[in-house]
From TrEMBL:
It comes from Caulobacter henricii. GO terms for biological process: methylation. GO terms for molecular function: methyltransferase activity. This is Methyltransferase. InterPro entries: S-AdoMet-dep_MeTrfase_Alr7345 (IPR016980), SAM-dependent_MTases_sf (IPR029063).
Length: 268
């Protein structure tokens, strides 16, 4: 399982103390590629909220929600859309991180509800009095929109599925343009997904549920977004990207990219 990088540095420091007989040891170098991530107070409180389901909290060491939301820049009072929220793992954290003056729109595509033939699981979050700032939106993917301009549109481990048959497949050019329009100038579009082999394009979206990150970057920037950077916190070089993300040997430990795109400040 992945561990927060600051915790790893602390463990290495304790190991150094145990093996040095005299005097304080020099601080250990950080692991190769490691970047210490400062978690803002609003996000730290949201992640540690004791009312979160235990089944969600046990996934934190693999999903690192604090580091991810810090990279996205989630602030109190923000307006956020959680695109394809599933059971609401991130929806709950967003709701607490943005606070009562913020708003979270859990956007569930009609394509999914027709397939599932049941109400979206995230409806239970919106009905919970502890999450009064959550609203579920049911609509098709190309018609993505919210009742107000957004600070952040977020989707985790879903982008590849929008290219798959059971989702239409969706017209990603239209979806990304709709997301662009929904954001405030300077707003962020954050995409997390399972990495496919470099150069594989869309080959593995259906079979392995992975996508070549270069495709995502190309499609999203074509809608007018500027690629602002990547967080390495969910990278895992041990994943050879050759098996399905549901394979027991790799499930929960896939190499994932976290891409941050921004709508230019002067865009409408």
């Amino acid at each position: 399982m992945r561990k927060p990088l600051l915790s790893l540095v602390a463990v290495l420091g304790l190991a150094a103390c145990a093996t040095t007989p005299v005097g304080p040891p020099p601080p250990p170098p950080p692991p190769s590629g490691a970047v210490a991530v400062a978690i803002p107070a609003n996000i730290a409180a949201a992640v540690s909220d004791p009312t979160r389901p235990a089944t969600d909290m046990v996934r934190d060491s693999d999903r690192l929600p604090g580091e991810v939301l810090a990279f996205a820049g989630v602030k109190s009072g923000a307006k956020v859309a959680d695109l394809i929220p599933g059971g609401g793992y991130f929806t709950r954290i967003f709701a607490k991180a943005v606070g009562p003056k913020g708003k979270v729109y859990a956007y569930v595509p009609d394509e999914l509800t027709k397939l599932a033939k049941r109400e979206p699981a995230v409806n239970a979050v919106a009905r919970d009095p502890a999450y009064k700032n959550v609203t579920v939106i049911l609509n098709t993917l190309p018609n993505f929109a919210a009742p107000e301009k957004l600070d952040l549109v977020f989707t985790a481990q879903n982008y590849h599925d929008m290219h798959n048959k059971f989702m239409g497949p969706a017209d990603l050019a239209a979806v990304n343009r709709a997301i662009f329009r929904s954001l405030k100038p300077g707003g962020v579009y954050l995409v997390i997904d399972h990495s496919a082999e470099a150069g594989s394009g869309l080959r593995d979206t259906e079979g392995l549920h992975r996508i070549d990150s270069a495709v995502v970057k190309s499609e999203v920037t074509a809608a007018g977004f500027v690629f602002e950077g990547e967080s390495p916190v969910l990278r895992d070089p041990a994943d050879k990207r050759a098996v399905s993300v549901f394979d027991p040997s790799i499930r929960g430990k896939t190499d994932q990219f976290v891409y941050k795109f921004r709508k230019p400040a002067g865009a409408r």
